């Protein structure tokens, strides 16, 4: 082994370790490795930066824009409403239709985006049918993962593998090259979930009530608000009277975070959004969030002339009002990931207050404001519904899960849905016909979307998931570095020595297993970048066609069913589905083995080894 190869392998091991620890972020790791490969002299500057001009990378960015156009025009949301109507009260039909629609959408747009879009839809349907959300959330995530097996553009690993084939001098995959493999797996997944859902979400049906219209008592229980939510009446002699909240600095001085102000008026009450300009009056009822010790609260109440009262009359989750409660979830591309609630500046940025945090089945009360947010965390927010509406426009740092019916669906370009469908049809037609390269077809689709104003230019830039683009562009040089230093050939020779005597089918099985296991620790895109060259080199050394080997890697990269951290889509449904880690292992491992069996049968049959 040469010194250069040892250096590359060391950097690769270091990158995998940082990916597994998620420290720092994956896109930052990719940039660090890109710079390191240049500094070691293994790659030149043009070679290290070549990933940014790779057609596959540009294609992925374009597909994010097209997917956002489908969201902004309300097409995806209308499909969800259609699903609720067609399913009726039949749970089995609902699971089948849900998986078919999610897989179809995910085949042409980001699977993570599809899941984030459908979580609120599924929660409302579950509440309407009085089903436990857990019976639908895992079918949702599995269908999104399978969608990557349906088309070339279904997931970035497909494009990475296809580009690697072209880089090695072979024909890449076509738009529907994956469909003969993905469709049987999708049908298998639907059948499997119709059986497996019996062991998911065994909670009582009334636990789903929070999905569409959460009651205050339900939210108090779920988020342990009974420990930190208090209602205090402002006394006539209170030093707070006549002063604004900005001047009072109740949070910094006393740890009291004011969620809402209920003010008596003739004939009823006003529920006010507590801004810095809000002036406190005698008789106001303050809904406050306090996480300190009980003795500290008693001292603050006595000092400020406040009186604890029964909160029965305060229910923001009841009839639609200007202010209320809403549950939201943190998606993978949120700028809030890794920040504490305080650092997220919810009040100043969104006009909202965080009063609860749940991670899986665990609710946080102590240290809530300092806890670092993670993908899949659900937050309970208090604030004006108009502020929640604004938060769902453009790039969403959180996705609404539960909110009242008076919060309108956010589809700012709903009147241009036909044009969005037209642009999508043009893209698919151009890709299938082969009249232009795939990347050019996607760029044409983006221009059509922009020309019809399905999405504006600023929205198009915001819709691109730049961490994914940077991750792929930054990791692609590893493939070249391993080729230049002989690492790919060495890996291929090792694989052949290990299982080569058992035949090509054993090699395919080994590649599938190695890719799936590697995907447990690092992203499926990075896994494809590393495994595709090994698969192609293995086939070339044996004198076999590289296409079945490359297809096996691509399908395995999408088979991230085994743990809730194998893919962002699994992490997203963990909280809303109320799953434990073991639920994914129990349901996902057998299904991964079934997918592996189907792959090993179909790939050599449809893509001859010679």
UniProtKB/TrEMBL annotation:
Alphabetical list of PANTHER family matching this protein: BASIC AMINO ACID ANTIPORTER YFCC-RELATED, RESPONSE REGULATOR
GO CC annotation, single: plasma membrane
Example GO biological process: potassium ion transport
Keywords: Membrane, Repeat, Transmembrane, Transmembrane helix, Transport
Compartments where located: Membrane
Name assigned to this protein: SLC13 family permease
Leader sequence residues: none
Pfam hit, one: CitMHS
Residues annotated as transmembrane: 30-50, 95-123, 135-153, 173-195, 421-452, 464-482, 520-537, 549-567, 587-607
Any GO molecular function: monoatomic cation transmembrane transporter activity
Keyword Cell cycle among UniProt keywords: no
Residues covered by the RCK C-terminal domain: 217-307, 312-397
Membrane topology designation: Multi-pass membrane protein
